[in-house]
Design a protein that fits this description.
nine-stranded mixed sheet, AB_hydrolase_3, alpha/beta
Length: about 325
């Protein structure tokens, strides 16, 4: 049974934030995209994300890029390895406080700096999945710091996996430097039409299919729906670094997380494999009754997931 705090967070998502209303219809999502395009959210980091955290601007190319460091590791920033964290937000919402808190914890607990790119958002013409993945690869290629981990949640999980897959082909030397990937409730198949996704969407308190499908034409920019940049579920999974994938069973995206798990277990992409699994280079954690991006949320289950993520990263980069 979920903790009291987890039930309270779910109640807040449903009744106070009313998050599902945003995705309940295509019109609602289009209106939100237009509103945020005309009145963009701030992407600036908060003034205080915890004691001992330092945040610098270290832009690469045209994107703002923040480096989040722990004071205890403040010397030699230019040579210390880093994590690249790609925030979620349905491809059209900016980074917000839970992302910054997670990033600050990652900097403290892993000993890595964390690089946070502010990538272009829908409906801007540069906000296609293929172009954003290419921009993430450029950061790995041009950064003064060696990127040893790529992580992301939701839309950011999609982009993190797509970039890692694309990097294997376009920049194999930099791909070889990656020691791990962390995917938190990622968007894996932009079609959102698998029967298990449809079934889970009925009880998902946050996400809905009709609104999310509005995003696909912007992301794909004419590419086929099964192109790996658009739906990384179908990309090459060979020769990737160790992956940690986390999802909750009250998240409709769990249906596609199970399909990725099935692929690593040698099954077809259309066959979902429920339940947590640990393989040599792939770990899937499926948490009962947890909602979308539960590892970022303020409850005991989220804290346990964050601790697991930090241990996974440390074990693979040390």
């Amino acid at each position: 049974m979920p903790s009291f705090a987890a039930r309270l967070v779910r109640w807040y998502i449903v009744w106070i934030r009313r998050a599902k209303v945003l995705f309940a219809s295509s019109d609602n999502t289009r209106n939100s995209i237009q509103t945020l395009y005309l009145c963009p959210q701030s992407f600036s980091p908060p003034q205080n994300v915890g004691q001992g955290i330092v945040i610098d601007r270290v832009d690469v190319n045209e994107w703002p890029l923040y480096r989040v460091s722990a004071n205890a590791h403040s010397t030699g920033k230019e040579t210390r390895p880093a994590m690249l964290y790609v925030h979620g937000g349905a491809f059209f919402r900016e980074i917000d406080l839970p992302h910054w808190k997670f990033v600050a914890q990652a900097a403290r607990d892993t000993g890595l700096d964390v690089l946070v790119p502010i990538y272009p958002l829908i409906p801007r013409p540069t906000a296609t999945a293929e172009k954003i993945a290419a921009g993430l690869i450029d950061i790995c290629r041009l950064s003064e710091q060696r990127i040893v981990c790529v992580a992301g949640d939701s839309a950011g999980g999609h982009l993190a996996l797509a970039a890692a897959q694309q990097m294997r082909e376009s920049q194999p030397d930099f791909a070889a430097q990656l020691r791990c990937l962390v995917l938190i409730s990622p968007v894996l198949d932009s079609a959102l039409d698998h029967p298990e996704v449809v079934r889970l969407s009925r009880d998902d308190p946050w996400l809905a299919i009709d609104g999310l499908r509005v995003l696909t034409p912007f992301l794909s920019a004419g590419l086929p729906i099964k192109h790996p940049a658009v739906s990384p579920l179908y990309g090459d999974i060979d020769h990737l670094p160790p992956i940690l994938l986390l999802c909750g069973t009250s998240d409709m995206l769990c249906g596609d997380a199970r399909r990725l798990s099935a692929r690593f277990q040698g099954k077809d992409a259309n066959e979902g494999m429920p339940g947590s699994v640990q393989l040599d280079n792939f770990t899937y954690v499926e948490q009962a009754d947890m909602i979308h991006v539960y590892p970022l949320l303020p409850h005991s289950e989220g804290a346990e997931a964050r601790d697991l993520i930090m241990r996974f990263v440390r074990n693979n980069v040390e």
